[in-house]
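User: Before I run my own analysis I want an independent prediction to cross-check against. Here's the chain; please return only the structure tokens and, at the end, one sentence I can use as a sanity check.
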Amino acid sequence: MKEPPMSKTLFEKIAAREIKADIVYEDELVLAFRDINPQAPTHVLIVPKKPIPRIDQAATTDQNLLGHLLLKAAEVAAKVGLQASGYRLVINNGRDGGESVPHLHCHILGGRQMTWPPG
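Assistant: Structure tokens:
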């Protein structure tokens, strides 16, 4: 018996414009948009358009995409005004890591002093 196709993740639906989002950056590989439940004055998510469930499921063939994701995260942080004051990049992995959407994504958080340890 053939398995039914996996349903799209929330982030795939945003990339396909099936769900509206406040998009701040897009290229052929990644999409960045403002988080609808911000945890800082500035909270942007940057996601690869390729659906990788989480960082521990990325393959060695994803190396260039992952590098691109991080470099673009820095560009987006500058674009939204966080370069001078600083920002935090967060990638959650699995339930205990705080992952809520099974699609690799990087949080760009800024606009306030971050504390340590997080969480």
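Sanity check: The first helix runs from residue 10 to 15.
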